[in-house]
Amino acid sequence: MDDDSEQVSDATPVDLKKVYEESNIQEVLDQLEKELVGLRPVKDRIREIAALLLIDKLREQVQLSAQSPSLHMCFTGNPGTGKTTVAMRMAEILHRLGYVRQGHVVAVTRDDLVGQYIGHTAPKTREVLKKAMGGVLFIDEAYYLYKPENERDYGAESIEILLQVMENQRDDLVVILAGYKDRMDKFFQSNPGMSSRIAHHIDFPDYSAEELLQIAKLMMAKLNYRFSPDGEKAFADYIEKRMQMPNFANARSIRNALDRARLRQANRLFASHGKALTRKDLVTLEPEDILASRVFAQQPEQ
After folding, report:
1. Distance (Å, rounded) from C-alpha 181 to C-alpha 185?
2. Which terminal residue of the chain, N or C, has fewer Cβ atoms less than 10 Å from its own Cβ?
């Protein structure tokens, strides 16, 4: 028989281990585990997507080819929950499995896509798409593209161009939309064409206080700093208070707090310039470096 589908028997063996090892995707998944504390549901979903793509490659080997899977995604969650980091690792996985040519990430917001006058939006959007081709386009706070209350807004033009490219060139570009969950839900309700093109929705949960302290210690270790035992207790207290205040941004707020604590430590050490310092002094954050924060005075800290 001439039909290609009958040239391969159902008993034809496939070497999953070989394809898996050649792709080196485990290296990326391990890196994701090391980079991000917690986020178990997110990490599990990324593994599931990687498994789907890996099996899709095996199916090609035995002539079970089908239309390329839609890989456009939506990441929802509060700021500082690791969405950009996961997008970068997702791009690596897609590249290693051959779904994108380069595996780079182009991160943009509305200002990068939408112009301020007639004829300005299309060139801006197409220029961004040109840079992103062969990789991943990450659009943060994507709902700002759509402003129905403003009749003179040009965001709809950018959305229309994005929709065309997401459908017609999905073999060469993966788009990831990101933002707050409630706002993204409203955005999809208002833009059913965009919603229909998103295959994977991944929600990023907030970190717990314990996870944020672990994140802080990892950030400190990368910078060759550490807490004293009492300093760690003070920072744990800081986290509990800061989480209850406005504009809390998870890991981003922790990073900012550590930057300020390091600044206070430097000023403290400088003020004691008559005292001989040790390596331990240079690497240790003490309670006073943390307790001086306005958070302990119940004043919101941005």
Report:
1. 6
2. N
SS3 call for 43: helix
CA 298, distance to chain mean position in Å, is: 31
298-301 long-range contacts, Cβ below 8 Å, gap at least 24? 300/245, 300/246, 300/247, 301/242, 301/245, 301/257
**Per-position DSSP letters for 151-178, written without gaps between them:** TT--HHHHHHHHHHHHHHTTTT-EEEEE
Give Cα separations from 41 to 38, 45, 47, 200 (angstroms): 9, 6, 10, 13
Angle between helix 251-271 and 209-222 (nearest 10): 50
- The parts of the chain modelled with pLDDT lower than 70 are 1-16, 20, 61-63, 65-67, 151, 298-302
Q: Both tokens of residue 23?
A: 């792709």
- pLDDT for position 227: 97
Is residue 285 a contact partner of residue 265, using CB atoms and an 8 Å limit? yes
Please choose, from the candidates 86, 119, 87, the residue with its C-alpha nearest in 3D space to the C-alpha of residue 106: 87
Rounded Cα gap, residues 106 and 286, in angstroms: 39
Which DSSP symbol is given to 9?
-
Tokens 């593209």 label which residue? 145
Dump pLDDT digits (tens) for 54-74.
888 777 766 676 667 789 999
Q: At what angle do helices 83-96 and 25-35 cross, to 10 degrees?
A: 170
Q: What is the pLDDT of residue 302?
A: 44
Report pLDDT for 298: 63
pLDDT per residue as tens digits for the range 219-241: 999 999 999 999 999 999 999 99
Return the SS3 of 249: coil
Distance CA 40, CA 183 (A): 24
